Structures are given as structure tokens and as C-alpha cells.
Amino acid sequence: MINIHTIVKHLVQKYNNTRDPEKIARELHITIVKKEYTGITKGYFIKIHTNKFIVINSLLNEYSQRIVMAHELGHAILHSTSNIYFIREQTLFPIGKYEVQANKFAAELLINDDDIIKEYTVPQMACYFGVPEELVEYKLLRRKEVEYL
């Protein structure tokens, strides 16, 4: 079983406590391409031979690009040995094992445990962290699982 929390914690520490997915991707020598897509594609991760690429739709606002970048970085780190392509289209939250793992990675990266305010509701935390409510829910679910153990 993949311990996504530990993987993200290690990356954040290794790269000067940054939670910026673009900075971490560059440190890992992942090529970032920002390209206009007029359709519904938000971004995707692809590996060609030993080269890794994250492609982000440049028409997205900065907020959305950051979230898609974190998600695709999750694919690059967690799934680069898998022989599959990851294309972000209509929604950030499609069903599937790899997509759920990439979403959890994005939640762990973009939401610092130390910054969570317990008195906040999920919508308030989403606004505070600048992430969709679904990412807050992933993060809070993991925290509840840890507290339960």
C-alpha cells in the first residue's frame, strides 16, 4: 500500500519545505508544458522513454493550474512505472484507483496539516487553502483515519 502522506512529507522536506507543485516538478526534472486546449482537457502526465512531462492547459486560471499540476505531479511520482496515460478532462475527481491516489497526493501537498483550523467547515477550509472542497475532504478523511489508529 502506498503511503502518500509520507511520500509528500519527504518531498516537501527535501525541497526546502515548498508545497509548490511546479517547483517540486522542476526539481524532479519533470518537463512542464503549458499549452492551450480549447476543449475540456485540463492537463495530463505522460512518460516517453525516461522523460516525464506534465502538460497543463494554459487557458485555466492560476488557481486551477496549481491544482491540476499537483494532481498530475501525483501521477508522475506515484504511477510513472505504470504503462498508462493520465488525461484530465471534465472533472478533477473521476473514479478510479489511480485518480483517487493522485487526488490524495494533491490534497497532501496543497494542504499542510499544521495549517488546518479545526473550527472551520469544509467550504471555509477550501477557501482558506484555495483548493476544491473534495481535496479538503480527502485530507480530513486521512486525518480521521490516523486519529482512529
Structure notes:
The structure is a single chain. This protein has a 4-stranded mixed sheet with strand order 1-3-2-4, with helices on one face. The protein has helices at residues 4-14, 21-27, 62-78, 97-110, 122-129, 133-148, and strands spanning 31-35, 43-48, 51-57, 86-88. The longest helix has 17 residues, at 62-78. It has 6 helices and 4 strands, in the order ααβββαβααα. The model has no long low-confidence stretch (mean pLDDT 87). It is an alpha+beta fold. Helix 4 (97-110) crosses helix 6 and helix 5 (122-129) crosses helix 6 (133-148). Helices cover 49% and strands 14% of the residues. Strand 2 and strand 3 (51-57) form a beta hairpin. The chain is globular. It has one domain (4-148).
Key words describing this protein structure:
6 helices; alpha+beta; 4-stranded mixed β-sheet; 14% strand; 149 residues
